[in-house]
Write a structure and sequence with these properties.
Protein name: Phospholipase D-like protein
Shape: elongated
Largest sheet: none
Number of helices: 3
Keywords: Membrane, Transmembrane, Transmembrane helix
Radius of gyration: 14 Å
Distance between the termini: 55 Å
Number of domains: 1
Number of strands: 0
């Protein structure tokens, strides 16, 4: 039987991708009790950092200028 508590929900996956500090927080909070949930939050946060930087660059250069 699978442990359904060891999965990161879509909502938290999207939040940790758009706001990477929340993903890092979720990783450190769940890393010992729910390792799969923590790993997915960490991967989402790590991929969210370049996306956020690129989005901020585009907003600052092309849209707000």
């Amino acid at each position: 039987m699978k442990d359904h508590k060891d999965r990161l929900s879509r909502f938290w996956f999207i939040v940790s991708n758009t706001l990477p500090p929340i993903g890092f927080f979720l990783y450190f909070r769940h890393r010992k009790t729910y390792p799969n949930k923590a790993k997915r939050a960490l991967i989402s946060a790590i991929t969210g950092v370049p996306v956020t930087v690129l989005g901020a660059y585009i907003m600052n250069t092309f849209i707000l200028n």
